[in-house]
Write a structure and sequence with these properties.
about 190 residues; alpha+beta; Trna Endonuclease, Chain: A, domain 1; two-stranded antiparallel sheet; elongated
Length: about 190
């Protein structure tokens, strides 16, 4: 025997139609499941908006001093992915290569100094503010420092300050690049 339950039906359903209770319950269950699952589906295929600026106010202030210090001797690039500066050594394969690449693939450096004529990377400059004090940030910094050192890319860590003296910064950059070029020349000979 089939149990028939009378539910109020919309006006477009002909009078006298009986809907079995299990069919109503199954339909409501499916609808509920769909609504529950919809919470994790993106509402928009591209849920993005424009960031207000590429650099934080502290990074912009440092960049102005860095540009003044660099003059035309260096091209400066900001927010460069670490994996665009260094790569896993030749000879690594499979899981070893993937693990090495994974450690650098989602990290970036603040500023890169390049030779303006050919784009050769000369040095990396990291601006260290309060965000570098946490344990997670220190761990990321250790990976960056180690990867750059292993690849022979000079790194200058600058503490964030209220103001920067372009002349002092120029001397530090020139010394860093000069030492790196000297080391590279000695390593080749």
């Amino acid at each position: 025997m089939m149990l028939h339950v009378a539910f109020p039906l919309p006006g477009w359903v002909p009078a006298g139609v009986v809907v079995p209770a299990f069919l109503v319950l199954v339909s409501l269950g499916i609808l509920g499941l769909m609504l529950w699952l919809a919470r994790w589906l993106p509402r928009d295929e591209f849920p993005y908006e424009r960031a207000p600026a590429l650099f934080t106010p502290a990074e912009r202030a440092f960049l102005l001093a860095l540009r003044e210090a660099a003059g035309s001797r260096y091209a400066i690039f900001g927010k460069v992915r670490l994996a665009d500066l260094v790569r896993p050594r030749a000879g690594l394969t499979g899981k070893s290569w993937a693990a090495a690449f994974g450690r650098i693939s989602r990290k970036h450096v603040d500023f890169v100094l390049c030779e303006p004529h050919d784009g050769r990377v000369l040095a990396v400059v990291e601006l260290d503010d309060r965000s570098h004090a946490g344990a997670g940030a220190r761990a990321r910094d250790r990976i960056k420092d180690g990867a750059l050192r292993a690849a022979g890319v000079p790194l200058l860590r600058m503490p964030a300050q209220r103001a920067y003296h372009a002349g002092d910064l120029r001397l530090r950059l020139d010394e860093l690049v000069r030492d790196a070029l000297t080391s590279a020349t000695l390593a080749r000979d």
